[in-house]
Amino acid sequence: MTETPAPHPPRDHPRDRIRAAFAEAGVTGWLHAEDIDSGARLDVGADQPVVTASVHKLCLLVALHRRAEAGELDLTDQTECPREGRTAGPTGLSAMLDPARLSLRDAAYLMMAVSDNTAAELLLARVGLDAVNDTTRRLGLTRTHAAHSFGAFVASIREDAGPGGPRALADPRVIARLRALDPARTNRSTPRDMTRLLGAIWRDEACAPEHCAAVRRLLGLQVWPHRLASGFPFDDVHVAGKTGSAPTLRNEVGVVEYPDRGRYAVAVFTRAASPAAALPAADAVIGTAARIAVDALRAAAAARTGP
Asked: Of 127, 226, 241, 307, which is the most buried if we count CB atoms within 10 A?
C-alpha cells in the first residue's frame, strides 16, 4: 500500500515572503500588521522586545496630549530653548545655533516631522518620564517602557563608543557593547504593542478625539519617505508614521490608509548585520515588508466578503 505524503504548507505564505525580504536586505526583522477595524493581523516575531529609539517619541506625544486633555498643561504654552545644552541630532532645534522660543505643540511638530531630539527633550521636561510610562501602561502596552530620556539614549551611545567617536561605530566589537542596542537596558517595546497604540490613536481611544486627530496630523507630516512609505507609492494611499534609528537599527511604525477606507497599523523593527550607516536596502525593506503584510490582509478581507 502506497502511503499518501502529508501535504506541505504553502511556500508562498506572506510570512515567508517577509522573512525572505528581510534576509535579502541583510537584516533581522520583526513585524506586526493589523487591520484597525476588523482586527485581522499578520506577524513575524510580533512579541520580540525591540529597541524603539525615536519611535518612542510617539509615546511621548500621546502622553503630552493626555496631559493637555486633563488640563495639566496647555499646548500653546511657550518653552525656551537656549543655545547651550541641546541634545545632539542632525535636525530641528538640535541643529540650530541660536536661542529659540516656541509653543509645546510646535515643538511636538519638530519632534515628529523631523525627529528633533532637542524638541523631544523640551517636551519630556514638561510631561515627565513617569507620565509617558503611565500612559503606555493605561493603554495596555504591557511590554513598552521608557527607561530614560532621548538625550540619555544618545549619550549612552557616545559613552560606549569611547574615544574613537562616531568612527568607532563601524567596528562590530563596539556595536556589540552598546547599551542602546539592548532592549533590556533602554527604551523598548514590541511590534504588537506599537500597532495597538496606533489602533487606539486611529479609533480615538488613546485620548479625546480632538487630541487623537492632532496626533494623527503630526504623524502625517513626517518628512521621511524612504522606509514605510516607500512600499506604498500611490497618490491615493496615505501613510503616516514615525521612524526610529540607531547604529544597525532601522524602525518605523505607522498607519496605511486606502481610498476604500481600509486602514492598517504596521510596525517594523530591523537590525542590520552590517554596521554601515548607509544601507538603502535595509531602509527599503521596511516598506517592502509592510506592503506584503498589508496586501495579505486586504486579500484575506476580500476573500471573506466575496465579489
From this structure: 241
Reported as a single tens digit per residue, the pLDDT across 178-231 is 999 999 999 999 999 999 999 999 999 999 999 999 999 999 999 999 999 999
Question: What is residue 145's DSSP assignment?
Answer: B
* Cell numbers describing residue 122: 523640551
What is the reported pLDDT for 108? 98
- Give CA–CA dist 176/5, Å, rounded: 46
Give the Cα separation of 49 and 149 in Å (integer).
19
CB 123 within 8 A of CB 229: no
Q: Which among 1, 21, 2 is positioned nearest to 282, based on CA atoms?
A: 21
Which H or E run contains 257?
A: strand 249-257
Name which of 147, 224, 144 is nearest 179 in CA terms.
147
User: What is d(CA 45, CA 191) in angstroms, rounded to the nearest whole number?
Assistant: 8
Helices (H), the chain: 14-25, 57-69, 104-113, 117-127, 129-138, 150-161, 172-176, 191-202, 209-220, 280-305
Minimal CA–CA distance to 90: which of 114, 106, 113? 114
Provide the pLDDT for residue 307.
60
pLDDT digits (tens, 9 = 90+) for 104-128: 999 999 999 999 999 999 999 999 9
Q: What DSSP state is assigned to residue 186?
A: S
DSSP summary character for residue 11? T
For 59-85, how does the pLDDT look when each residue is reduced to its tens digit (9 = 90+)? 999 999 999 999 999 999 999 999 998
| Interatomic CA distance for residues 56 and 112, integer angstroms | 10
Beta-bridged to residue 41, according to DSSP, are 34
Q: Exposed, middle or buried by CB within 10 Å (0-12, 13-18, 19+), for 305?
A: exposed
Q: What phi and psi, each to the nearest 5 degrees, are found at residue 298?
A: -70, -40
Closest CA to 37 of 234, 280, 255: 255
